[in-house]
């Protein structure tokens, strides 16, 4: 356990974040896209909690709780949007929904 | 963890376990749900008895739940005499209600759901009484509100039932708002919600006197909502829409007891404010006589009991509002005795309703004594108990002590008010005896008024009558033990050990000379005997003799307007409709109209003006400007076609663009910082 330092957490968070970014940019499935967003948010959470332990004060943990709350709200809103899109386009593939096309 | 705390956890866990088991076995155990509920409740009851027989010391156990911003939140269990007494009451009544329900609810479509919520409700109430802090108390307070909502709305197919459960939930919520503010204020001043901390800090002067008054009134607001005190009592009569065993459990013995318990528990704090005390007493006294007056005119057997419950709860609050230890003990003692005989009355009415095939209207009953003797006898005995038949019924002793407490007052500035309330309560006690026996005569004696109901009446199964006999027996045993020990029955073994530190700062009850207490006691006994025999005698005269019937009719004709007012519950529902609901609707309508007429008018006006100027400018536009524009537009449209390609409409392309841009910015920022 003694070998586990701040950097390990930061690297983990960076990897998580990168996974999230790839997920968001490359996936066509709207749900997959949301999962990518969650991954990024949680990567940030890992950072926050890691720094909370590193600094030894409560701020990071508090922010992490806020982020979790925000993520929950975001998921609720986003899923209902996806549901509407599904009703509208009968598909959740983002490529089938191209009304923004110029 | 001390043994007592462990026992308390087991007591609370059993009903929760029952609720959980029934939640996952809804289909398989549908009509056998009582095989889960009843045994688990018996375990809980046994543990409560063991706990009560344990040496009566205050046991505490807690743990740190979390540490936030330097504030340590501790949750735990505190078991003192009051908790022990409440645990006995709740487990006994709940066990018997479980037993009774297995007969009463037989064949119900949602039989298992009923037992599940019964278990969860019992768990909430038990959790509430073992809590050592206001935070968990409040949580259980709310979960109890939820389970009562589900139980009152058991027959949610009926419109009246779902309206009733909604009304119960919303009305108690009004009180809870006050309670919540009180908790916030307490935390603001003392930095803790644990009873001991709060009391210690309050005693040390951490809370200003004015704040104590408002905190006490806030707590009382919550208690008044839960315990149906004026003007928040309107939900309780409607809540009779729930199945009758639920009425016995929730609206007689336990949930409405929560409010009384809260005030009893917080008495150390509340007693610091004589003004808060006198408000509590006055509201209680008014509720007592007000509800008793309505009970005179009710013809639904459950409604009579509902109003009598409100009235009896008023008795308890009046006593608690004195703030002396004699009255404190009397109020909580009445809570205990009332729980048993009122549960007996409610279950008895359930048995009557069951016997009459779900007929609840007393004007269609009559002459049922021979048909359902066990129900009749237990109902009659419980009526005697609530009327306060001297010496052998528990109700006599508790009511007598309340009256005595009122006479003695608390030695503060408001003793005159308490003495006046003494007469109010004595009158209410007479009315109680009258209307309870009115329901007894109308149901079991007098000529059968509906032969269909009468001919088909049948005694209930053993599971139901057993519960009745046990509850009536408890009322009798409590009365007799008190008679043998000169008013020092088992309740004195439970209550005083909290009483001495719940003593008001200004109260000097123990300072009362023996003579004074003796004198007050004699007066109270005389008054309660007159009340009991007077009320029973009058109602027997009025309902059993033909002369009485003439007198009754003539008297009613004399006070017809008053009678009609009482029949309509003194217009409380109409007042609530007029004062709260209609203004809310009116405000909504007003805002809507303001929006439709005012805001929309402005918008429409602006729109119309814009259209006129638009028409004018369009002409100028078409001729002059367009020519120039067409020429100029050639440039961007060419450019637009060029960039049009980028607008694929595909989300991931946009996202890729956004992420890429952020990445680019990050690179630039990092580069500049290095530079």
Question: How is this structure best described in words?
Answer:
Chain A is mainly alpha-helical and 102 residues long. Chain A contains three helices and no strands. Chain A is elongated, with a radius of gyration of 17 Å. The mean pLDDT of chain A is 87. Chain B is mainly α. In chain B, helix 5 runs antiparallel to helix 6 (159-190) and helix 15 runs antiparallel to helix 16 (373-387). Chains A and B meet through helix 1 of A and helix 27 of B.
| Helix-strand pattern of chain B | HHEEHHHHHHHHHHHHHHHHHHHHHHHHH
How would you sum up the global shape of chain A? elongated
The counted number of beta strands of chain A is 0
Helix content of chain B: over 70%
Quickly give the structural class of chain A.
mainly alpha
Number of helices of chain B: 27
Our Rg estimate of chain B from Cα atoms comes to 32 Å
How would a crystallographer describe the biggest sheet of chain B? 2 strands, antiparallel
Q: What is the arithmetic mean of pLDDT of chain A?
A: 87
Major sheet attributes of chain A: none
Q: What's the alpha carbon Rg of chain A, rounded to whole Å? A: 17 Å
Strand tally of chain B: 2
Helix fraction of chain A by DSSP (H/I, runs of at least 4): over 70%
Any low-confidence stretches of chain A, pLDDT <50, length ≥5?
none
Determine the most extensive contact between two protein chains. A-B, 17 and 15 residues
Q: N-to-C SSE series of chain A? A: HHH
What share of the residues of chain B does DSSP label as strand, in percent?
A: under 5%
Short overview:
With 102 residues, chain A is mainly α.
